[in-house]
Amino acid sequence: MKNTPWLVIGAGAIGLFWACKLEELGYKVHLVYRSENPGKKITLESLTNENGDQQITVSKHKIKSVAASELTDTYDKVLLCTKSFDLKNAFLQVAQHITDDANIACLCNGIGAQEELQNALSENQTLWAGTTSEGVLKIEPNHIKHTGLGDTYFGEWQPSIPAKAFPIDGLTVTNIHQRMIEKLAVNAVINPITAIFSIHNGDILNDEFKPLVNATLSELASVFSHPKFSYADQSQHLTPENLKNRVNTIAQLTRLNRSSMHEDIRLQRQTENSFISGFLLNNSPIDLPIQQLLYNGVAFPEQREETQKKLLSIT
Ligand SMILES: NC(=O)C1=CN([C@@H]2O[C@H](COP(=O)(O)OP(=O)(O)OC[C@H]3O[C@@H](n4cnc5c(N)ncnc54)[C@H](OP(=O)(O)O)[C@@H]3O)[C@@H](O)[C@H]2O)C=CC1
Ligand SMILES: CC(C)(CO)C(=O)C(=O)O
């Protein structure tokens, strides 16, 4: 299948990163941009772990970038790298160029957009939902920087028997829903707190935020262990202790980074709040007063100062 190109959609940090990675793996790649044309060459400052040492290497990648309206070919492998709120429309605008039996992968934070996308696919197209812990920053339209080493996994959104094969070896897991809820848990703590208080990821570990972080984690653990939670089959292992370890590890590993939600608010862009806290609020069988405060603090800038006070008064 290496002779047919991947269609990567979204020339943001993750789209440019994966366009380069796929090209490195020997695939032909066509990249669809929306507002910023990255041009013909992408510079990737990548982080590698050679002999236990993190090293930066710079490479240039020749990628064909086009606007959706310029597409003429048909594709059987698609990787969508948009934010969750753009996912379905990004697919629909290229749908006429996608084969009826295509593999369609997506990499976005949050839960909810994948189901919308699944509903837009035809019967024999396969949706591969993905989750990534790589950190990537776009510093220019054609220049990205790898800021944190991580892992990426894909899995069939609707598992089939026998399991289907993903076009790239070594990246699949049998239960992607479990990985997604684990990532969502981390995002539901780090993203809104860093965004509401304008702090870096590592700052949530400071004493000032400990009561808030602990209360958020224990509220999440109550919903994850609730038998009526829509993801209960995938979330029982997320105990307060397990959640704390996950959040602390990621906050520590990405301590100098701004979360995507903090960055979105700082740059006055739409956030993925509805697909992170919003997903939890809509799917929880119990009230989640802290998650509701976090949701409001992100969604309503005029309430942010008041929300900060309420969040810091949690004991
Ligand atoms: N960056 C990171 O380190 C990480 C990101 N993620 C997740 O990965 C996803 C992508 O993140 P990231 O790359 O940082 O986000 P960006 O906002 O940098 O990139 C998203 C890109 O999608 C483009 N896009 C949206 N709609 C369309 C469309 N219809 N056609 C073509 N392009 C479109 C946007 O175009 P435009 O420029 O016009 O807005 C933008 O360039 C998010 O869900 C994020 O939470 C997860 C882990 C780490
Ligand atoms: C893991 C984390 C919190 C890293 O910044 C992230 O996924 C995000 O910022 O959206």
Automatic annotation (TrEMBL):
GO terms for molecular function: 2-dehydropantoate 2-reductase activity; NADP binding. It is an enzyme of class 1 (oxidoreductase). One of its GO terms (biological process) is pantothenate biosynthetic process. Its EC number is 1.1.1.169. The keyword NADP applies. One of its GO terms (cellular component) is cytoplasm. Pathway: Cofactor biosynthesis; (R)-pantothenate biosynthesis; (R)-pantoate from 3-methyl-2-oxobutanoate: step 2/2. Keywords: NADP, Oxidoreductase, Pantothenate biosynthesis. Residues 6-158 form the Ketopantoate reductase N-terminal domain. Residues 175-282 form the Ketopantoate reductase C-terminal domain. SUPFAM superfamilies: 6-phosphogluconate dehydrogenase C-terminal domain-like, NAD(P)-binding Rossmann-fold domains. The keyword Ribosomal protein does not apply. It catalyses: (R)-pantoate + NADP(+) = 2-dehydropantoate + NADPH + H(+). PANTHER family: 2-DEHYDROPANTOATE 2-REDUCTASE, 2-DEHYDROPANTOATE 2-REDUCTASE-RELATED. Belongs to the ketopantoate reductase family. NCBIfam families: apbA_panE. This is 2-dehydropantoate 2-reductase. It comes from Marinomonas profundimaris.
